[in-house]
Amino acid sequence: MMNRTAFIKFGGTTSFLLHSLSSFQFGTHTASLHSNVSSLIHKITNLNDALNLFDEMSHTRPLPSVVHFTQLLNAVTKMKHFSSSLHLFNQMCAIGVPVDKYSMSIAIKCCCQLYRSKDGFALLGCCFRRAIPPNVYIFNALLDGLVLEDRILEAEMLFKKLIKQKLCEPNVVTYNTMIKGLCKFGNNVTALALLRLMEQKNCKPDIVTYSTIIDSLCKDKLIDDAFKLFKEMLFEKGILPDVITYTSLIRGLCNLGRWDEASKLLKEMEDENISPDVQTFTVLVDAFCKEGKVEEAEAVINIMIERGKAPDLVTYNSLIDGYCLRGEMIKAKKLFDSITLRGLVPDVVTYSSLLNGYCKNLNIEKAEQMFREMSGKGLKPDVVTYSTMIQGFFQVGRCVAARKLFDEMHAQGQIPNECTYGIVLDGLCNNHLVEDALSLFHLVGNSKLNSNVAVYNILIDGASKNGKVDIARVVFQGLTDKGLQPNVRTYTVMISGFCQEGLLGEAKLLFLKMDESGCPPDDVTYRVLLQGYLKNRHYDDVEMLLQEMDDRGYSLDASTLSLFIDDIAAGLLDRSMLKLLGKLVPKELLNDPSLCDWE
DNA sequence: CTAGGGTTAG
């Protein structure tokens, strides 16, 4: 806590306060403080001013009222200085300001926003002891805290308890917070059910309710459902969408590559006089970059600047990623270096993006350099940074370095997640260390990490590629034994493994099982099986498979197609198959010169 | 004097 001396030292930026406060610094005009305090609080723009004003207030006798202290507390909280705000709250208690439900609710909110909902609940206990009946604001803050910490079951329990024990009447914010939690865990169905419950209970869903669910549907690529809800909101409830609603929908469309509709929606929102903001533009930049359309992303940034919406760190992080994806590392680094010139400070994501770019482009030394540099700047590498770097080491065959970093990650308190685990298993397999991957897999045993099909897909693929199809078969069996459902990819990698070993009978059997199991083969499965057949000169089922592909609307890829052409040229396959093959050539390959000379 | 929804990295 800063004292008065420190305040003087900081000087300069707070001169208006000094001036305003000078009237009572010598204890002569305390009355003027009380009348001025609200206006002083409104002028607060930084933490130092707030802390010093608090200091002044706490030395004033009689003490300013709890309302004034709470106003100040609120100002600090709005600046997101949650721990300072909590500190001030504690000071208030210590100097005997009688805290009320308002200050309590702010303090609880601060605990929760700091991922310390446990302390929030402790304060709830204080409410009861001090005969401050907790209100809906307090419970909403606690509910939000649980959601923030991903403690969704406890959030649901609290929500139900509020209603059952009539602790408070849940309002639209309570519902919205619970819905946000459900959406965060991908439970759109229950979120929607809660929206319906609101209607029943006469607690009108509002734009936040709708936007939250619409956003979640978009994230799950359920864009049609999202628009259905959007129309319901607009036409049945008469709620007008705002910039947030539009941004979610635009992102949903962009992520599905439906650019035309996205730009139509962008135009629609501008027609409604809703201006896209920095986040809307950033969504566009990010989507373009992910598609490799960096020029379009740059154009969006230029539009932003023209319109006076300064791109922020997130915008630039996305663009860095876009350059990295295209292997344009010089541009990526140049942008990285220019971020500081724009008055922005690179964060963990910025560093991780560039580091990822260097890894993906196999410049591991530069990646390591970024890794060291960020630590030097006081930025702590997080799970993503570590995972990226570990993957980079594996990609260049530096398995020992990968292992060392994995251990360091543990030591630094960064817990590997599913993705890290997958990277390690994949890395080991790709470096011919299938046995090590299996040992790790068995070591992990029955934990949650091993209940993900992706893990099995990696091991089956890895074992097969190392010529250990027997191990792959055992892992595949283990997956079903565990009650997990293989997905298309699982079947496909297993079939690919069988084909590699010339076990076409087993491949075919598994292929046939897919439809039976309600997991129909996709175009990749067909290509894998066809390649297996062709490479093994097994032509019996080929024509039938091609016909099925045509029926299902699938197409061939360039490499499978060239195998066919080679076999036809060698007279191994009949030219009559060309007609069928012609139907399976994807549009983008039609102008490929290497495929022009057949027929 | 107190509350809620949208953007980035593996």
TrEMBL record:
It holds the Pfam family PPR_1. It comes from the Eukaryota. PPR repeats lie at residues 171-205, 206-241, 242-276, 277-311, 312-346, 347-381, 382-416, 452-486, 487-521, 522-556. The keyword Transmembrane helix does not apply. InterPro entries: PPR_rpt (IPR002885), TPR-like_helical_dom_sf (IPR011990). Belongs to the PPR family. P subfamily. This is Putative tetratricopeptide repeat (TPR)-like superfamily protein. The lineage of its organism: Eukaryota, Viridiplantae, Streptophyta, Embryophyta, Tracheophyta.
